[in-house]
Amino acid sequence: MQPGIHRPLICASNFLHFQDKNTLMIKQNLIVLGLLGSLLSACHHEEAHEEAPPKLEVTHPWHQDTMITKEYVCQIHAIQHIELRALERGYLQDVYAGEGQVIKQGQPMFKIMPNVYQVDLLKAQAEAKTVQIEYENTKALAEKNIVSQNELALGKAKLDKANAEVQLAQTHLNFTNINAPFTGIMDHLLVRKGSLLDEGDLLTTLSDNSRMWVYFNVPEAEYLDFKLHQKQEKGVPVKLRMANGAIFDQPGAIETVEADFDNKTGNIEFRADFPNPNRLLRHGQTGTILMDVPYPNAMLIPQKATFEVLDKTFVYVVTKDHKVEQRMVKIAAEVPHLFIIKSGLKDTDTVLLEGLRRVKNGQKIDIDYKAPEKVLPELELYAE
């Protein structure tokens, strides 16, 4: 083989081997550049998606004279509601009144057959007359000193006893006539004409509903608030919402507060009086007492600025470095769209109004302050 032919083959082989090395180095450089580019791209991507602090509305608590309306379930009673019972034994002879009828004071309602009691009265009167004659004879003899003064005194005692027997018999006879003790409405008839009655049998009930007594129970905490806010308990005005939702057209007032709390319920009973000139209210009805309770200079915040955790109420307060801080507050009462704050906030605190679910304790935010006078008109729109 000639040397000229062999040498070019060696050169071609070396050239190919050199070319493979360069290609591998280029590929490796490209991979390194690609990784660097990816890292740079990721860094730029993270910088591009770094979020600015959210800008949220805040306000301050404010003070205002406030009136809230407390509601209490109540029982309505007639000012007089009594049971009419038979005072004597006998047959019911007459019934003069009907169920649901307005009975005037003194009007006859029932009559029990009086025959036996009439006879007893006649007998007592006859005996009294006999004793009266004996006493007059004894008195005449005593004046002539024929009998002693002791005999005369004994005769007088017998006469007094006989007259008492007459009065007793007359009373039993009167009990056979049952008249209305006051003007009122008669309830169900529990007996009928001809019924045999025993002493004490219930005949009906009678209700005077010209004025109504309305009883309602107040929890201990609300009773204490009532006493603190009211200078005197008697005469405090209240309203009555009836079972159909309508407000009774007559104003009422608290007249009494019972002496003791019920240990089982922790309540104390109040009584309010209502005039009932049209006899709309009846004994045994139910309703709801509406009582206005004043809160002078109360601290207020919007209800939407609060949230609850395990039955406790919290707000987010924004600190000086614009970080939100979770704080528990105590609610004294609520009015439409607002809470009256009992404790937990100061006048200078900045309260978060919106985005309560978007932030967490310690998060930094930008604030958009709104004065309370601008917040109030927006609350109704928020509620809708």
Written overview of the protein:
- With 384 residues, the chain is of the alpha+beta class.
- The protein has helices at 3-48, 115-143, 149-174, 220-229, 372-383; strands at 55-59, 62-85, 90-95, 102-103, 108-112, 177-179, 184-186, 196-197, 202-219, 237-242, 252-257, 267-275, 286-302, 306-309, 312-318, 324-335, 338-343, 351-352, 366-369.
- The strands form three sheets. A six-stranded antiparallel barrel has the order 2-9-12-11-10-13. A four-stranded antiparallel β-sheet has the order 6-5-3-8, with no helix packed on it. Strands 18-1-19 form a three-stranded mixed β-sheet, with no helix packed on it.
- Strand 15 (312-318) and strand 16 form a beta hairpin.
- Helix 2 packs antiparallel against helix 3.
- Residues 1-19 and 44-48 have low confidence and may be disordered.
Overview features:
single chain, 384 residues, alpha+beta, 4-stranded antiparallel sheet, 5 helices, 19 strands, elongated
Per-chain topology:
Layout lengths: L2 H46 L6 E5 L2 E24 L4 E6 L6 E2 L4 E5 L2 H29 L5 H26 L2 E3 L4 E3 L9 E2 L4 E18 H10 L7 E6 L9 E6 L9 E9 L10 E17 L3 E4 L2 E7 L5 E12 L2 E6 L7 E2 L13 E4 L2 H12 L1
Parallel strand pairs: 1-19
Antiparallel strand pairs: 1-18, 2-9, 2-13, 3-5, 3-8, 4-7, 5-6, 7-9, 9-12, 10-11, 10-13, 11-12, 13-17, 14-15, 15-16, 16-17
